[in-house]
Design a protein that fits this description.
It contains three helices and no strands. It is mainly α. The longest helix is centred in the middle third of the chain and has 32 residues. It starts with a helix and ends with a helix.
Length: about 100
């Protein structure tokens, strides 16, 4: 069984990655509103890197669980996964709005 302290630390890292990426996506949208598309695109890339880190960490967690063959459900992990999924949804919406702003120049 994965140590609860380790599981909690991973969950908090995932939440942090998701929260930071979400903020960066929103910041990119605000930059796009000001027609600062180069900066907005850079912010999207930075956020994508955060999400890539989150997915890598999540995969490590899944591998640990599979190796031990003892699934664990933690409310903190569920919350972390929810944050990442919400971040992915926000990314899709931000990219769509940015495209509208680009066409409206």
């Amino acid at each position: 069984m994965i140590d609860l302290e380790k599981l909690s630390a991973i969950a908090l890292q995932l939440i942090s990655y998701g929260g930071c990426a979400k903020s960066m996506y929103v910041e990119a949208l605000n930059l796009a509103k000001k027609n600062e598309f180069e900066k907005a695109d850079a912010k999207i890339a930075e956020a994508d890197n955060m999400i890539a880190n989150a997915h890598k960490l999540h995969l490590e967690l899944l591998q640990m669980e599979a190796e031990e063959n003892m699934p664990q459900v933690s409310l903190l992990i569920v919350h972390a996964e929810d944050q990442i999924m919400n971040c992915e949804t926000i990314k899709i919406m931000v990219l769509e709005f940015m495209e509208i702003y680009r066409k409206g120049r």
